[in-house]
Amino acid sequence: MVQKFPIDKFKKIETPFYYYDCDLLRETLQAINKELKKYENFIVHYAIKANANAKVLNVIQQTGMGADCVSGGEIQRCLDCGFPADKIVYAGVGKSDWEINLGLDHDIFCFNVESVAELEVINELAAKKGKTANVCFRINPDVGAHTHEKITTGLAENKFGIAMQDMLPTILEASRMPNIHFIGLHFHIGSQLLEMTDFRHLCSRINEIQDGLEQENIKIKNINVGGGLGIDYDNPDNHPIPDFKSYFYTFARYLKLREGQKLHFELGRAIVGQMGSLITRTLYVKQGTAKQFAIVDTGMTDLIRPALYQASHKIENLSSDGALHAYDVVGPICESSDVFAKDIELNTVHRGDLIAMRSAGAYGEIMASQYNCRKLPIGYTSDEL
Predict the structure, then answer these.
(1) pLDDT tens digits, residue range 101-117?
(2) Do 377 and 367 form a contact (C-beta atoms < 8 A)?
(3) How far apart are the first and last CA of the chain?
């Protein structure tokens, strides 16, 4: 499926901006729901941190999907967009008191707790409100993942989660707290994972953990395996929808769920990544000593992934079908790292040409900043253009 852009409408819009294909988003959500029908105990929460554009969230919540939040701001955004509070999970290594209180006030499904210190605060705040907080413990399983070092989260050296050796004492401590209700375990090993073997290793570790806890007569009602399923940044048209069939089957096949257990997933990039593109205009074509530069009006302030993670996005010239030439595509920000791609082939670029940076629906608009006093990019959907 080749992405079709309403280029005539793009010409009338001030750049840079994000464009979200809601038809592809709905197809992606339908693909997920098709697989979920096979597994009655599987529940998906959309990871809000990937893209919190209200127009996008409105489409997602209409499917009945839950939400995975990592801040009070995300919780409030979800509530404002119609997500049911009882389908909201709240994770994050540093939860402020006001954020915890917001979750308590709205009776969210659970808090994914990352330390005993945090647990004590939640118990104290819940007591003041006369409430009981549902909690899952995020366990650091010490499982590696084939991804960029800055988005691996399941190793012992990472800041996330409770260490394996501290898990049992933490569960026992929770049982002594009057305003805490322990309901499960939470895991997350990394992001942009494309190899199912990473998830198989996680399943094996969870199986070991469950066997050990059962020897202590501790039963787990909910298992949350996080998210992490990646997308094809190199060929978005070839793989517009991730392989959800293999993803969910891997957990069904290798994770030994107990009777009545619920298995939760937190998918973000896999849902919204491919439906978004960053649209920019070419300001200048500059001939350097050794190469040509296509200088565009978007920068690392609008899409920071290439500068932060050395990530690559497929880049297309929407205005030209001329001969291919090699360019470095760079932005206007006063940083040497404001580079989107080096020595890539594009159809002949001219001043004013519209350029699309594909697969930018996740961790794009949401991570934008106003460095250099730049305006934040606006996000438009196909439903409104």
Answers:
(1) 999 999 999 999 999 99
(2) no
(3) 20
Calculate ∠ Cα 131-132-133, nearest 5°.
115
Give 10-residue mean pLDDT values along the chain (385 residues).
Answer: 86 98 98 97 98 98 97 98 98 95 98 95 98 95 54 48 89 96 94 91 94 95 95 96 97 96 98 98 94 97 95 97 97 97 97 98 98 98 96
- DSSP letters for 269-285: HHHHTTTEEEEEEEEEE
DSSP state of 206: H
CATH of the domain at 342: 2.40.37.10
What DSSP character marks residue 257?
P
Domain membership of residue 8 (yes or no) is: no
Angstrom CA distances, 281 to 51, 104, 159, 185, 267, stand at 23, 46, 40, 47, 32
Q: Taking a C-beta distance cutoff of 8 angstroms, is the pair 190, 227 a contact?
A: no
33 and 91, same domain (yes or no): yes
What is the total count of domains within the chain? 2
pLDDT tens for 12-48 read 999 999 999 999 999 999 999 999 999 999 999 999 9
Record the tokens describing residue 34, joined without a space: 């098709």
Q: Are residues 228 and 351 in the same domain?
A: no
Shared domain check, 251 and 106:
yes
Report the CATH number at residue 241: 3.20.20.10
Distances (CA, A) of 289 to 169, 204, 293: 64, 55, 10
pTM: 0.94
pLDDT at 148 (0 to 100): 42
d(CA 67, CA 46): 5
**HEC string for 42-111:** EEEEEEHHHCCCHHHHHHHHCCCCEEEECCHHHHHHHHHCCCCHHHEEECCCCCCHHHHHHHHHCCCCEE
Q: Is residue 183 located within the same domain as residue 329?
A: no
Q: Compute CA distances 272 → 81, 201, 249, whole Å.
A: 16, 26, 21
- In which domain, by residue range, is 365 found? 276-381
